[in-house]
Amino acid sequence: MLMAHLLLGFFCGITFGIAVASYVALYAPVLVDVYVTEYLVWILMSSSVFVLITVLGVTIGRYCSTVSFTQSNHDERALQLFVVLPGSRTLTFSGSTDSTVGQLMDFVSSNSLFTFQPGSVWRLTSSRGDVLSDRDKHLGLYGLHNQYHVQVLGRLLGGSGRLPNKRPASSKRDNISDAWLQKHKFSRCQDPLGQEVYACTQCPFTGRTRSQLYGHMKRCRLSFPEDTNLNMDNENDFNTSDDHNEDHSSSSKDSSGHTSEVLSGDSSGHSQVQEETALPSSLVSALIHVMDDLDPANPNHRQTLEYISAILDNLCQHSYPESEDDEPDAAELGVLSQLGAMDHGQLQLLEPTNPAELLASGSTVQAYKERLDDPLWRVTVNNGDGVVVCQEARITVGQFGYAWLKEKMAGRVRDVVADRQLRFLRDICLPPGNHVPPSLYVLRKMLGIPDPRDFEQHICLSEKCRFPPLPTKDWMDHRDDTCNCPEKYKRFKMVTTSAGAHPLPNKRYWDFGVENIIQAMFSDPLFRQLRGTGRDNEPDDFYGSQMAKDIDAKTNGQLMQHANSAYDLGFDFAQVYQFKTHSVGLLLMRCTDLPVAHRSKRRFTYILTVIPGPEEPSSMDVYVSRTLDAFKEYGTYSESSLMVMGNDRQLFEHKIFSSAIFADTPANRKLSLWNSHTSATGCGHCLLKGVSGEGGGMYFPGYAVDADVNCIFDGVIPDMENAPLSARCGDPRIMVSHEMHLKRAALAMKDPQWTGIVGCKGLSPIIRELDYCNYNDVFVVPVAHAALFGVIKRFWNTILGKLGRHVMDYTILGPQRKIMAQRASHIITTNDLNRPYRDIVKHRGTWTMEDWLHWLDSYSVYILHEEDSLQSSTPLMPVVQRVVDGITKSFNIKVMWNNLRTALLHYFRYDPSDFSADANNHAARLLKSFSIAAEHVFGIQFCTYNLHILVCRLREQENARGHVAFATEFWVERGMQMMKSIVKYRSPTVPELVLAGGYLASLWLTHLKAAHPETFRTFDEWVPGYRADNIQLNPSKRDVFLDEEDSEGSQLLGQGYIADAEQRSHILGGILRTEETEDFMARTNLLPSVLQDSDIYIFKRALKRRDEVVLSVDYARATKRQSYHFKCKYGPGGMVSESDPRVSIFIVEILFFALIRPRCDVAPVKVAVCNLHQAEVLRPKELYRVKDYSRRDATVNEVRQEILLNYFPKEVGMIDSKVIRCRVNNELSYFLTYVTFSQLPTNDGGEYA
């Protein structure tokens, strides 16, 4: 009514005001001859009249509303309000319109766990209506003359926005009289914690509140007085102190089915109180809700949890009927079923499939550990003849836990969903009495998965010192511990929850320990098999380098001993969320003593340390201190060694050494303590100074002309006093040696004012703790970031810049871009390239490092070639003119790209026939030539730190460490993907804890598999029919055959079927027909008679040298990617170059694979049956063209002319490099060679085969 009067007055005032103002504004200037300025005065007067009349109308409306309500309040009316409390709990207030707001507030405060501070605000129906803040006002004045809902919003007038404070619970939650206790057969006593409880005199039950006692009275099988009220809906105690309310309560059911308790009225004017609650009505439910407020990580709560567990055990012994006539109702069973879903520390109860099961079942984690070898379920069945047959599961409890958890992790199933799945299997799908763990917590503990808290390390807020280890149960006793810093930072902060105050560490990180990670490595049988095998076979790797020889000399020959190994550390930060900033750091570890083809796989990459976010730490010293201590303890500085298991499963002593630190440039600076790369002294390897650009940024020129040198060391450090005033990048005179590093670090530590001048902030912890490491060699150049994401990306972004009126002369124009886009549609990617090619003109903004690497390696060759009809008279890449020393010179952008590509390919591709000091120097000269041209063409803006570090350090690194391709940071990126795969699709408050827990689970399952390979099997091993690759069939049937890996690592995959007559004829005829028959038979010992008496099986896929999966045309799943094209040479000898006229280059199109299995004592042979198309060499080893590419049978002339050879058997191990088809049309195709880089961040899973 108030709102209606206000609106009426408002609209009346507006209408009247508009009318008067319009008349004054329109007619007054006509009646009076005034000037323009006077007209404006009339407009202002008219507006003022409008406002005044509107306000007057509103005032009149409000006055009428007040009078109307005042008159209406003469008649008192009964009033019933439903007060909605947080948690969907309601209280029913019965009063009248004369009841005051204060009476309503007092009623709610006395009948709930909430109280409100002075100034608390309530509003009618959420945000509508007046504020209920004046305690003396009658409810009728607020329009509450009918039934309304009053919702507690909990907003304070001070604007804090906090929820109302809970009233602190008193030590006695009930004033229960002794007479009432005696009448209902209870006694007053104390629990083990010293708190007052009420014990049943007829059974072991104890309770704390009146509602719990009512619940026990209803559920207990013993006799009680007939007048006892067994209503259980008043489960939560309201802390009422009136004794007369104890014995005068009655129960009733409302229309909605909820039980309401009617309390007798008091003198405050409200005669009845009805209460509704959505909480379950049982003592078990009450205990569950109490336990929800307890934190199992809090040591003070663990005793309480154990005490509640004892109560539940006692309750369960007296809660279930023994006869079928006394079954508990559905509501009771529904509440009891919540027991199995509880996950509080060690309190784990088994949900019963029937009421009697709980009495006999084991309910602890220990019970499940004892059942690991028991069948998952066992039942007895009567077969109908009176014979009882026992049936049991094929899988044990432990095997089920391992396989099920592996599937959960592979499918990224959320923990809540996993719990529900376990309960569904246990209670619905499997027979009663099965041993499926009731929760994910029990399953993890049953398998022995470590707790992340066991690897938690606490550090002070200054990140300078680390606290000693402390068990979780002792946190409360050490809550006031402080660090050794002058600031005395506290170790813990006290956090208050509904369960009380408990300590939490102020700053922490997770360190899994070097010794634990190495033990995990050696638990992998493949790791034990591969370790040390690459030293002799890969002489251009680390173990054949000068750096390894230096470390071996400094460690008294211990590095080169076969029992010892070197290890690499990787370090990086990554954002775990896409919707907010939260940077998490990982310290990774891998073994350098593995072959290059396996070293960087995810299976052999381990997380060592998890550094929490959301911000990156300012110093890494404390985070790497335990790691460096371990390298010292188990390295050359101590007599102690790690005892690890060898390939023969015998223990031996193992010493460890650090060989490299892999990190991108920002992360590198946190460990090397060099100045930021955005400063003028940002290069840690030389003294060349950076220059600030006009638009900001730091650039490092010195390619085309000399640049300034940091000469601050003249007269300060003897070894650095002869540096020239200016030099070019890469000049040996300005390079900083290891000894010079140490001297300038000492200078920076002695006087911090030198930090910005000398180029470092102090001595790196790596060098300080491991003195066999060399400053220049141990910190590896991040070649992938610097070259791919730095120089190459910047080059193509520059020449593919925006087109317009002021286009630069080095920009690729529109017609040429169209040709590049057309060629992009020709490329058909193979299956071992993770991402298909996306047009560089349009989509390069979303390219990853892998995309840029494949562009450098192969895609650019076809996109930029000039040997087809699409090529116009204008070259794709322009030629620009620049004045150099007064002379105009031409710079061809295509030549610049070729120089850059050739130089970087030397460092990214490993060619053992072309690895030498001369090849390294040639690549360095090409890189410097590109840099000089880039400085002339693009200016100083192209001279970034990424280009500088490549020119400055890459050649020296290869001379010191071995080939650069063996020391890229792709494995670190793969390790960061492990973190993202665990945390992805989740938004936890502490993602680092989720990461640590998930990674420990994965590591532990891997350990179980390695220790018991026959016991713990995955889903694919249990259900081999789900994947055809793993089908175990009997070869003796001679209809299907499974191949095994040979000594070269080649294997035919999938099922092999007996060749039909036509296939057999093609294979044998092709072998006997070719010119290479004699060589083939000499290698394989397959004489014609042996061939005729052999079993031949047909396969669709093959694995080449353990590293490359090859498909065939018959493989139906390869619909979008063609992975059956190879390049091969057909002619005399295998070492003849492609330019030799005696050699024909063919493109192989594999039709199918065949396994020739002689029936005599001759080794089987694996061949690829294929068509051979003679190709035209456009760019040797890179680009080929087949003008007449069609799938057809060859004519006699074509076979003689070697244009097309169909059904040509080629041994799988002798197939050359795979090629990418670029299909222009049905007749014309180009083919690109490419390299499968073993260190790319591919998703290899790291699982056991």
TrEMBL record:
Positions with biased composition (Polar residues): 226-239, 261-278
Record domain Ubiquitin-like: where: 79-159
Record key words, sorted: Membrane, Transmembrane, Transmembrane helix
UniProt key word Transmembrane: yes
InterPro entries: Ubiquitin-like_dom
Chain intervals for the UniProt region annotation (Disordered): 226-278
Coiled coil: none
Transmembrane segments: 6-27, 39-63
Keyword tRNA-binding attached: no
UniProt feature, compositional bias: Basic and acidic residues: 241-251
Protein name as annotated: Ubiquitin-like domain-containing protein
